[in-house]
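Sequence, structure tokens passed on for absentees:
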Amino acid sequence: MVSFAVQRSANDAGTARDGVPCNDLAGIWQLANYHDDVAVPIYPPKPKPGDCVAVVSPSRGLPGEVPLPYELGLRRLQEDFQLRAVEYPTTRTMGASPQARASDINAAFADPQIKAVIASVGGSDQITVLRHLDRDLIRANPKPFFGYSDNTNLVLFLRSLGIVSFHGGMVMTQYGRPGALHPMTAESLQAALFTSGEFELRQTPQFGEVLGSWQDPRTFEVEPQMEPADGWIWHNANRVVEGASWGGDLEIVSWLLMADLAVQPVEVYSGGVLFLETGDSMPSAEEVYVIMRSMGERGLLEQFSALLMGRPKTWSRHRTLDADQKAQFRKAQREAVLRALTEYAPHVVAVFDVDLGHTDPQLVIPCGGTIRVDGPERRVFVTY
């Protein structure tokens, strides 16, 4: 497959896969009267079909070593979403320095021809990139950013700048899903990319979490393994709450809290909706409780009016559980979260097993955007 052309600096015109320079359809959009303690972030302008989007690797250049899901994801971006992907110097480069990865991100936000920024995949050291990002440049040129897992770093960095970002939708995992793009994922991505307004999150009858080998072409010829999904589990579902969201991968959130990065004074999150999920590391229930206890001691948990907790990942290439063990893992994690809420935020409305994390399908969450949790009706709405 022919690779996408690579943009190499903020001053060069972006070139999409078809070789045609991206059209500059809009000027730079300025955030007016911004302060670091802003409580309600602003939605950046959305791309339109035909626009150019940056594909970056803020964590690791895995596309260079495992191209099959990446190339499939690029093809779907173009064919299914009519978006023209522009690569950057570190998109396919494993071991790129934090400075080089940050340079790509800065360049993508600086280029007025780029209308959104999408992460290729996650990793584990994106926190080292944040110090090299140009806060003023990015704040002055807000764009939708899509990513999750280790990209929680950039998601919450943008949230701290007053920019709504989008938790979910990476090239190799969602766009590059084996078989076909999951319909629920596609619907959520379509709405988050191109529309504004309220979108209802729906429960899935089936979910998947087992990944085949990304190096085996046969993996992509068949649908992934799925299993029946239990419905959402509600706690304190006696009222309707609405607020600006904050959160992401729980482990990454804990790292940011330890480093005191991309975290604002706790009062900024008052009345908001917290969303959390646990990823491939499959932390124990005790680890989950300890992290949330620390959030409680910081005075953070009590600020939120609701919590959306993602469906836990109970499979990884390094750890497999049988059906009973999976059920116990999920139950133990839920009980750990409820224990922390009981101790620090007993008022919170909580919804468990929402498909917002490392399982399939995936629903995109607007970080900093509005979420409405309707307890009596057992419904959840996000504003894209």
Q: What stands out?
A: The two ends are 33 Å apart (CA to CA). The domain at 199-383 is CATH 3.50.30.60 (Glucose Oxidase; domain 1). Residues 323-344 form the longest helix (22 residues).
